[in-house]
């Protein structure tokens, strides 16, 4: 098993298929013998190039009000009488055509104490976001928390001048001093969530990853089952 891993750089799925074992068993044995993940090795030589997993970049601010997270959650409204789970798919489609709409949950959470303030509002326009922040700031102030910094995403309502005015001069902005600190939106490019098309017949062995090995193993098992069905049909 370890020999197949080192010499051919196969993943647990393909090794399990070759040795007629379960994938979980192969994975446990490879972990027991300290075999690194394929993503940690050089695709051409198999030499280990990574030695530890990336540490989580987590933090908690020490004092209340040092950082307040502000965001919006968009949720579909449930019509009167229930949705399609209760009324059936046909009625659910009719409700969809009628346009029941959405609720927008505006949230503000203090990073230190986790004290939160939320409102169920009609939209996510700049006027709505600015009004929400004024009420949220008053709520935190009543709780004895003086907000010093706000963290938002790059939504249009948060980049507006109206929201910046609602923050006021006492709320810390980004290092440039012109806009609040803004997080980068998660996209397939930034999140690296895009995956190449896996073709078991044309993937180069030197560039295989664990995901590719899993796909190859699944394709081989499906091919074996099709072959067994054809043989049993002629028997």
Task: Give me some keywords for this one.
single chain, 235 residues, alpha/beta, five-stranded mixed sheet, 5 strands, 12% strand, flat
Describe the structure.
This protein has helices at about 1-10, 10-20, 25-30, 85, 90-100, 125-140, 160-165, 190, 210-235, and strands at about 70-75, 100-110, 115-120, 150, 180. With about 240 residues, it is α/β, with parallel strands linked by helices. Strands 3-2-1-4-5 form a five-stranded mixed β-sheet, covered by helices on one side. Helix 7 links the parallel strand 4 (about 150) and strand 5. Helix 2 runs parallel beside helix 9. Residues about 175-180 and about 190-205 have low confidence and may be disordered.
Structural topology:
Layout: H1 2-8, H2 12-19, H3 23-32, E1 68-76, H4 84-87, H5 89-98, E2 102-110, E3 116-121, H6 126-142, E4 150-152, H7 161-167, E5 181-182, H8 188-191, H9 210-234
Parallel strand pairs: 1-4, 4-5
Antiparallel strand pairs: 1-2, 2-3
């Amino acid at each position: 098993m370890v020999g197949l891993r080192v010499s051919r750089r196969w993943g647990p799925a393909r090794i399990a298929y070759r040795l007629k074992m379960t994938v979980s068993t192969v994975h446990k044995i490879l972990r027991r013998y300290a075999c690194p993940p394929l993503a940690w090795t050089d695709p051409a030589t198999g030499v280990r190039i990574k030695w530890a997993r990336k540490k989580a970049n987590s933090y908690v601010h020490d004092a209340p009000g040092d950082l307040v997270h502000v965001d919006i959650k968009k949720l579909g409204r449930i019509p009167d009488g229930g949705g399609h789970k209760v009324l059936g798919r046909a009625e659910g489609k009719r409700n969809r055509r009628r346009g029941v709409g959405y609720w927008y949950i505006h949230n503000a959470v203090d990073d230190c104490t986790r004290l939160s303030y939320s409102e169920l509002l009609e939209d996510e326009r700049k006027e709505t976001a600015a009004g929400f922040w004024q009420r949220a700031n008053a709520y935190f102030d009543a709780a004895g928390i003086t907000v010093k910094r706000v963290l938002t995403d790059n939504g249009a309502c948060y980049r507006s001048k109206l929201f910046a005015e609602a923050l006021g001069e006492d709320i810390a902005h980004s290092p440039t001093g012109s806009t609040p600190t803004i997080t980068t939106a998660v996209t397939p490019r930034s999140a690296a969530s895009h995956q190449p098309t896996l073709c078991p017949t044309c993937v180069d062995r030197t560039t295989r990853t664990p995901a590719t090995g899993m796909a190859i193993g699944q394709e081989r098992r499906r091919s074996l089952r099709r072959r067994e069905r054809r043989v049993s049909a002629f028997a």
